[in-house]
Amino acid sequence: MSDSVSVSNDKTNKKTRNQFRRRTIARAGAVQALFQYEQSGDSVDQILLQFHQHRGGGHLDQFEEGKVPQADMLLLGQIFRKAALNQEKIDEELSEILPKEWSLRQIDSVLRAILRAALAELSDGLPAAITINEYMDVTHAFLSVEAARLANGVLETAALRRK
Fold this sequence. Notes:
This protein is an all-alpha fold. Helices cover 74% and strands 0% of the residues. The protein has 7 helices and no strands.
C-alpha cells in the first residue's frame, strides 16, 4: 500500500513541478513578447498571434530558438497584455524607483522588459516574494549577475511601495 501512495505522490509532485515550470516559461515568454513589442512596433494582438502560432509548443530544447515550449500560453498572454497596455504607468513607476542619474532608456532593453512584466504581475494577488523569485530566475537566464542585482533591488522597492 505504501508503494501506491509513493507512486501517487510522485505523480502529483511531477505534475506540480511541470505546472510551475510552465508558468516560469510563460513569464520568460512574456518578457520576449515585451521585448518584441518595443523593438518591432507590432500591436499587442499581432505579437500574441505570432506567439500562439509560431512560438508555443515544442520541446524544451527549442527554447533557444525563440520558442516558449510548454509555456502556459494563457498566463503569457495575460502578463504581456497587462504590461503592454499599462506600459506608460509602469514606466513612470520604474522611473521613480531607478537612481536619479539613470533614465529608463539607459537600461538594457531585455531588463526593461523583465521589469515591466514583473511590475505588471506584482499587483495580481500572488505574493510579492514569489513574483520576485520568478522574475529573478528569468533575469538570471537572460542577463548578467549585475543586471540581476539591479532587477532585485527595483522589484523589492516596487513591492514595498505597493504595501
